[in-house]
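for the record, two folds in this file. i put them one after another cuz i was lazy. first one right below, seq on top, structure tokens after. the second one comes after a little note so u can tell where it starts
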Amino acid sequence: MASLNVLAVVCLGYVALLFLVAFLADRMASRGHSARWLRSPLVYTLSLSIYCTAWTFYGAVGYAARSGLEYITIYLGPTLVMIGWWWGLRKLVRIGRSQRVTSIADLLSARYGKSNLLAIGVTILAVIGTTPYISLQLQSITLSFAIFAEADPLRSVNETQTVFWVALGLAVFAILFGTRNLNANERHHGVVTAVALEAVVKLVSLLAVGIFVVWGIAGGLSQTLQRIDASSIGQWQVDGGRWAAITFLSAAAFVCLPRMFQVMVVENEDERHLRIAAWAFPLYLLLISIFVVPIAAIGLELLPQRSNPDLFVLTLPLAEGQQGLAVLSFIGGFSSATSMAIVAAMALSTMVSNHIVMPIWLRWQEVGASVSGDVRDVVLLARRLSIAGIMALGYLYYTISGGGAALAAIGLIAFAGVAQMLPSLVGGLFWRGATRAGALAGLTVGFAVWLYTMLLPALGGGVLPTHILAEGLFGIGWLKPHALFGIEGLDETVHAVLWSMLLNTGAFLIGSLATFPSPLERLQGAQFVDVFEHSSGPRGWLGSVAQAEDLMIMSQRILGAGEAQRFFQAELARQGGRGPLPEPTPAFLERLERELSASIGAAAAHAMVGQIVGGSSVSVQDLMAVADETAQILEYSSRLEMQSEELSRTARKLQETNEKLTQISQQKDAFLSQVSHELRTPMTSIRAFSEILRDADHLSATDHTRYAGIIHDEALRLTRLLNDLLDLSVLENGQVTLNFSAGRLGDVLDHAVATALADGSADLRVLRDDATDDLRLSTDLDRLSQVFINLIANAEKYCTAEQPQLRIVAQESGDWLFIDFIDNGAGIPPEYRTTIFEKFSRVSPERAGGAGLGLAICREIMQRLGGDVGYLAGQEGGAFRVSLSLRREIAA
């Protein structure tokens, strides 16, 4: 007989194998070259077997032994969904991918105006509804250990301790492999691959037991059928009400269970996988259920009368001395329980952290969303603590309920709980008129009825007083938990499902019809209902340039510095590579919100972007989607609102333009005064010293040479000023001729540094990284060198550090080359950064320098070359970025 020690070693070895598989899959995926099978439809289909928990592995046999063929309803519901409603699942997956949802709570929140209140309600319902199911898995593992303990005279099992250690082990596995990534849309390849492996293990083990029972014990197929007919199972009668109710519950749970939503929607790599899963998963359900009745019938015949039917899969092999088969069966049941508990804990932890912990934490923070910090650690800690708490709730439910109920009964309680999300989910997918108020009303009413009629009576132990069960709430007879509204005689499950779903749906419809959706709800409704026409997702944010840095800081807090910088660089390249940060356009803010929602949920991401941006606009496409079902007056109201916002934006832009023109006018006046001074000073010197040379009769040769040199230097000064004015005029009028040629970036920089510091008097230290010196350029190299010379000369003139230093950093990003010139001085004050590239602009008129034309000339040159030059904010000193396209062809 296999001892508990041997069984423990087998379990540890199997868990170690799962750890190894999950670790290798995660490692392969993180390196970016994961094997094709990791993203195959086969792995996706097998991961859906997370539906087949210990209830279906152990409980289905017990269900068949107690209720005949009624167990088929547990498999019939998902089969009908996969075959008859796969197009609805495809719509669900498309919405999940386009909206970047992380859980079913996130999806419902996004649909109904990104309401975090609704997400909190769904999360609480999901946690309470799933807790009995997790308790079921813990109970099944404990019972299977107890079966082996009965045959081991040297060992005994303390069920409470066993449940505790099993819950702890499952929590550790879920924490290690379910919270490695903050971004929920990065997929948990390790966990999904481990679940797929467990799907094969539990299928093989159940088929092995079934084959042994049919051909090893019963003597063949015909003898097995005869023994089934002779058993109580052969006398079964169809209870139409229960069959319909349980089939509906299993179908609803298949769509609404958090763990099923996790593997079916969040972990989906390609919605085309649903086409294969539509027939492959029902086939899997057929195979895993095909031997349920034979095992139940033979178990009822051969095993003692008081044997637990839920454990026939284990006790039959043990009774026949098949220890190896019994251990294999135990591993199958162990796989069924662990895979469900792990994925359910992962999914629920994401919901708890995104919709409960994070909003509370952000509200407690005294700082805004744009202040530096790191939210990643808070989110990951919240998810890990949530997993531990969810497992603790399962353990607590087991302790309170005593663990004595049949596995199938516990499973039906959980199914009925999560099914309360179905009206709001389906209504949100197909009805634009569904509102947040209706969804909240339906969920609240349905949850309360399920709690009162099903969950609390099932807990026992005085949780719901006996006088309420017998007499009804407040002594009102028609409020009895099992006879609401005076309707008696119904099966308890049918009664609870009927009233909870009926009242839930009624409250949802009435609430939606009685309230009017907000503009955001209507836009989201259009995106959900017509997702295949509007898969790009909702648009609406409108930001300003000044908010780009705040958005960058906030993104770094949530995504991490590296990931946020890569995202912003990609957006910068998408917009054309102009400026240090991308323009906060509505399209960019939409993509940023989705990127953040994958980590902290749609509602929290929407709130954090809104905290910084604080305004919105509506795109034409979204207005058209809303106008399809609105009345003329509502359509007119939307247009007025849009026009009002447009006028507000135009007024803001006019105000900004007016301020800029005023500043430029002041700078032009200062320029005219300065140019007059610049021209008058050398002209005065030239006139004075030329008169001396003309009128003096007895000048020495030395004085003659000195005065002539002064005249020469002042003439050169005038020439430079006139050349700058002429150069800028030619560039602005488009009359410049560009001479394109090919060359090395290093050669251009070498020439620029040597020219700018040619007099040898400068103490500026230039630091360069020669890694990109060999990069080939196709542009006007002389003009590009002119830009570099000007920037280096500016650093030499205006760097205020005691030991001036200039770093020149070049980097490629897609089709763009960025060359940064960063000094260690004080930099340029923020109020001057928007005008330094304007003509006549000088930040420090009192310091030595030209007339403020250098940077204006640099920008004109770079724009003629198909690039740009801009000020690089966020550095320690003054910094400029030169952007140059690498795709420009050399002119013939």
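(here's the note) second protein begins now
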Amino acid sequence: MSKSYNNTITLSDSEATVRSKLKTMVTDPARVRRTDKGNPDVCPVFTLHKSTISTQAVIDRVNKECRTAEIGCIDCKGLLADALVERLTPIWEKRREFVQKPKVVDEIIDAGTKKAHAVASKTLAEVNEAMKIG
């Protein structure tokens, strides 16, 4: 997935968009037909499964069933989409809350700015002292 290919998944994407983008992902290039045995070790979809998106049970299932052609690439992508949607749903719900309350977002940003300013000021003072500036 690449921003330059316009296929990145963003936190503002809908479930349908996420599923659509995953459907177009490149898989094992040697697996041409559904009945061909795959090699998850060279498949970017499997890499995403392993990157804490899918449960270990799903990872083990995909690893086994891809190698034996029990599932096809579309099936594998569907399992990935299910796992990703499950992970993104709480984020989407929280995002909807924040969209409804822009003042809360502004307050969070202001509080974060003040906290960051305090930390940065202290760090800058330490740097100035260490460099014997000012």
